[in-house]
Amino acid sequence: MSDLSYQRVQQALQTLKLHRIPDCLDHLAEQAASHSWTYVEFLDKLLEAEVAARTEHDIFVKTRQAHFPFVKTLDQFEFAFQPSVNEKQVRELAAMRFVAHGENVLLLGPPGVGKTHLAIALGLSAIMQGLSVSFVSMSDLLEQIARDAKTDRLNQRLQLLGRPRLLIIDEMGYFPLDRRAGQFLFQLVSRRYQKGSIILTSNKSFADWGEIFTDSVLATALLDRLLHASHTLNIRGQSYRLKDKLKAGVFTELGTPDGRKEG
User: What span, in angstroms and rounded, lies between the C-alpha atoms of 133 and 193?
Assistant: First the structure.
């Protein structure tokens, strides 16, 4: 290839915004010559490199925009430690068919059993498949609602949380919801109903959700929409964060630190 042709190719790649190909052009051209690739095979290798780079960049951007508190995958989840978690069911959820159908996933269980880990892992699986994801903890959402209410921006917050294909709401049940927060959450769930999927984690069983809301009717209506098309995983087990202490005998069971039962 002449210097002039090489310069024209480089300029064309910049114009077309094919940013990965210039980095691998020389190397792949040498391989093409040594292996006698056809023109189509050479082009295929160039485009493969470009697509891979764009996919990697897209995953990076979507992961950053999701605002995960940490990044954990399904392969990092210790299913053997939590036998109540059906690994096959979780792997099937990771295929994201529930998002395609506008369904929800509810992860219930006591603190430390891996609800947030699973929620984030499913969120990462969604990103790997090109879907937009947003993560928010209930405590942060309550702060956002209080702040937005003062500046009359609650509707903008609803619009923002209504956009991603998958919305993860973490730690429902640790804080009571006043009427404004309860109404906001109801509007959010209603807006996403059968349109955008929600993964929600909670330390409360559905029967106890009346304790979270000041309005039991509102709680019932919200649950009705969440559960209409949903997958519920009840995780019963010991705290992952305390497993080393359990092994060491510091905790003999989840109760008080010395192992005595509460109540």
Answer: 16
